Amino acid sequence: MKSYISRIILGIFLLCCSFIFSQQLSQNQFKVRGNCEMCKERIETTAQKAGAKTAKYSIDSQTLMLETEPNVSASDILKEVAKAGHDNEKFQAEETSYNALPSCCHYEREGIIQTAEEHYMQAKAENEFYVKGNCESCKARIEKAAKDAGADSAEWSAEKQSVTLNFNAQKTSADKILRKIAEVGHDNEKYKAEDQTYKNLPSCCLYDREIQFGEANPKVHFEETVEASQAGHHDNPRDNNQEKSIEGVTVTASKAATSLNKKEAGLIFNIDKKELLKAACCNLSESFETNATVDVSFSNAVTGTKQLKMLGLDQKYTSLTKELLPEIRGLASAYGLNFIPGRWIESIQLTKGGSTVTNGYESITGQINTELLKHSESPETSLNLFADFNGRTEANITSVSKIDDKWSQTFLLHGNGTFGDTDMNDDNFLDRPKGSQLNAAYLLNYNDLEKSGFGSHFGINFIKDERTAGQVGFDKKIPHAQQSLYGVGIDISRFQVWNKTGYVFKGKPYQSLGWMNQYTFHQQDSFFGLRNYSGKQHTYYSNLIFESILGNTNHKYKAGANFMYDGYDEDYLTQNFKRNEIVPGAFAEYTLTGLKYTLVAGARIDFHNLAGTQFTPRLNFKYDITPQTILRLSAGRGFRTANVFAESQQYFASSRTIQILENSGNIYGLRPEIAWNYGASLQQEFKLFGRKSSIVADFFRTDFQDQVMVDLDRSPQLLTFYNLEGKSFANSFQTQWDLMPFKNFELRFAYKYYDVQADYLNGRRAVPFMAKHRGFVNAAYSTNKNDKGGFWSFDTTLNIVGEQRLPDTSSNPSEFQLPAYSPSYAVLNAQISRNFNKKIRAYFGGENLTSYSQTNAIVDFKNPFGNYFDGGMVYAPIMKANFYVGLDVTF
Fold this sequence. Notes:
- The protein is mainly beta.
- Helix content is about 10%, strand content about 45%.
- Helix 2 (about 35-50) packs across helix 3 (about 75-85) and helix 6 packs across helix 7 (about 175-185).
């Protein structure tokens, strides 16, 4: 009996202590505004001088925890903190005190500070309670425990670290529910979980037990975007459009303009549409001007086309997808970057090195995935108008709206036209083509993931693009025989329809099934002087993916099957090339998550009717040396079939004759391209000027097992294709430093080194048009928003490009010979924009403000039908400084 009474007394004592402690905690926790480490030091020092026994300030939660003696008033301490320049829930700092703070300490003074007590009472009124957790598995566990304890509904927020309950007080109580939540392993403001229960949670759920209630959880990266099919994670809380992820169906926008995904085993950069607004970004080829990872360059002086390069290799070795579906490949390789308008883009995920096997076998140097606008909290229609000072105009209309609670739709319309004759170097050739593009898309989205578990996304896209280039005055409507001018005509029609449908299993947020399908038709009719080229491509793609766990969320896996059909019909001069590529395949991927590491191992097998059976393994490993120091390793294999005509159109505007040295292959008589890619990176975060700063250094090597060589050196009059006999490799090193010296001012520095060599028929040489050294600087500043949401933004980017090896032209007459190496040069872009409010934005910018342009970009431009004419020897910009203006209006 005594033992029983003792237990009751002990229980009452512990409960009272807990109650007293929680009351003391709420009474000694105060809202105080600050910005950086200097603020933290100032606030804590001031509080201690004013009589606080201890003072601990959290920048993340904007709260000051005080421990005081009974005879010391917290109000007196907060009054001194305000005198030091920091607004708090009881006193406002004088304007002179605030202005005297260093610029890095100028916190936002908007809004009303809510006291800790007010927040506590408001939370109780709404039945909201602090509960610690990390991920979607935590969310499922917490909400299930609450419902098991009698709650009618429960919604846990990773961002707030709290659960909102709805229950019948006659059937249960908040105390009973919170006790049940603690029993399954989650500390809350009333009960603490047993140590053993906590330790038995999956590693991804092991939250930090030392963090004060109300403070942000550093394991929850709200600034990062996690694409479901790339990450395979369902532990990504989101601040906007909070949804469960379906494999390949749901993507959300990130808070940061550009962020490196710390959770991912691979090196994945998330580029938000905010980043795209820093430059003209009229299409995807211009969307990387403020990004150091991707190199953008002109590839032809006649057609003005741009190409991307990554890890020192051409665009064709990077998998370019839209909505995680194959996009810029095959016949679209040369001009496909122009088919995704910048204003249509919601986000871009850029993966360096080996990407996941679930997205196919073609990725060798990485993957760039573009997501179209789909998410909006309220109906939103936007109009964008753009014009530059050399005759290019553009208009975009985007509209995102909800049909009902489950259905939403997006209308996307783009039109552009280039009407002016731009010839800045006076060679009588247009520096860029004239013509127009009409581009329209419709997206329909269904989301019932929370109830039925189903979600679906449907899209349709049509493009008509017509371009004319060549000598000034050329008219492609007039037959060639009736005019002596050299001309280029490129007409493209493109149609796509796709669907992605997924299902999340009820009660199992970690288990899903996704199915993606797409049909693409692409047709190009073109001529380059007297050289004709046309082609048609039919592509059908299907991908079925199942995702689940083995025991717990530390062990995740994906498995699936896919099918790809490509039908090609090409005409070059008088020759016809037809082929059908039929590729069924299967894949599996396993993800192991530990306390400090993540391992993603995958493999796929594809049965290519022309390239044979191909095995593609890929491995990514991430180890958190500390929470701020992350090491990544990767290795993987990829293969692709080369489309030698479509991918080499930059050399068609020349006198070069195409020569294919067949080598027992089934694609133009050539074998497929196969390469291994290996990489390592180190990411280090630290505080500088009281703000977050990071340095990322990475090294990647690509080794080709087989490659289709594009040889420009055998003769200035030949373009020769043949399979590699020997070695071909690319070494890439990049280091990037991001910092914020003071509020609203961001800096990005990068240096890149490339060593790209191959064994050609005439010996080993550096691959042409690839600079060994590149430098990059980006600076961005924005003013504080006014009460209408208006502000100014300033952005400038400097690219420094080192010398590049040029193709051998020594057999040409001396006046038509190029030097062995190009000179180094620098390109400066800048933009100023003004947001008048949340709905109206105007911008003005300039490209290539250094006005550097390549001298004699076209070899023998005076005789375009002669033996030495060549418009493909391009290593630098063709156009000098160009200025533009634009207007964005949201309705």
